Amino acid sequence: MEKVVIIGSGCAGLTAALYAARANLRPLLFTGRQPGGLLTTTSIVENFPGFPEGVDGYELMVRMQKQAERFGARVQFGTVESVDLSKQPFRLSADGETVETETLIIAAGAGHRHLGLESELKLENKGVTYCATCDGALPMFRDKPLVVVGGGDSACEEATYLTRFGSVVYLVHRRDSLRASKIMIERTLAHKKIKPVWDSTVTEVLDVAQGKVTGVRVKNVKTGSENAIECAGLFVAIGHTPNTALFKGVIHMDDHGYIVPRHGAATNVPGVFVAGDCSDRVYRQAVTAAGLGCAAAIEAERFLAARNE
Ligand code: NAP
Fold first, then answer.
1. Residue 187, Cα to own-chain centre: how many angstroms?
2. Catalytic, out of 84, 95, 134, 254
3. Of 6, 11, 9, residue with least CA distance to 26
4. CA separation (Å) from 166 to 11, 68, 141, 145, 188?
5. 73-130: per-residue pLDDT in tens?
6. Residue 220: enclosing H or E segment and its boundaries?
7. Distance from the CA of 178 to the center of ligand 1, in angstroms?
8. Active-site hit among 56, 84, 95, 131
9. Looking at the DSSP assignment, which residues form a beta bridge with residue 220?
10. Whose CA is nearest to atom 19 of ligand 1?
């Protein structure tokens, strides 16, 4: 029987693991499909306190895991496939193994949002990607025109990163201004290789018949006019969807699937706590996720202490 099980290995999950481990609770953490979470797919993280020169996203997560393990956290590669939170102890099934636990911390994060086009789906990994850091350096994108969709920090970061590889980077955004932070906007729009395409949406990825990306069809939402942009890659950076499907109907969530805590990190099910991007649609920063992970672990610890009094 576990005292604390944590689902997710991003900033929230690993910080929860660190705090729970230091409270002698020997937490068991399931990494999910992407150990280290979304931050491992970014390049340099410049806004995590304590790293004045910035830190590589992957390296930051490796360090967090080592720190948690140093105090006794057990990090297990695996995905939790089903949960029964109807009674104590909670029962989880992960990669065929059943685990019982007194408390659960959900830090499952969020995944990349898709445009929802059939051609996008068909050309995924054939030129359509959701991670410039992971795929940008592939030979197929070298010295070729590339397209990034989105207007937030992710889109700006992806576009800037891709200027290393592409001949030109078109930044297609559905409005005429970016929602990214000021410093990112300035950096992005000042770059000679980045060409913004305002007020536009991608309506089709070309060319499904050829089995690779040769361009995108773009529609101007103000004029209705359509044209094609030739490119070898489409990088979609339009935000995220919380990884909470497993808890639907059991844990309270909003219409977009973000878990809504009852108070602090506590959910509507006593003993189940939540932290990070799967419950935060406002801040979504590495440092806020870490803070929420800390809060969830402290609450789990207090819950266990109160039960055993
Ligand atoms: P975001 O801020 O939610 O931005 C998503 C962008 O995609 C918006 O510009 C949105 O357009 C657009 N969009 C959404 N759905 C779309 C659709 N179906 N078709 C076309 N465009 C669509 O997401 P994000 O950029 O991934 O950032 C998420 C959070 O992480 C933010 O809090 C951000 O600050 C943070 N972040 C920080 C850094 C950093 O500090 N270095 C880096 C990356 C991310 P509208 O503008 O019209 O809504």
1. 23
2. 134
3. 6
4. 31, 39, 6, 6, 15
5. 999 999 999 999 999 999 999 998 999 999 999 999 998 999 999 999 999 989 999 9
6. strand 215-220
7. 9
8. 131
9. 200
10. 115
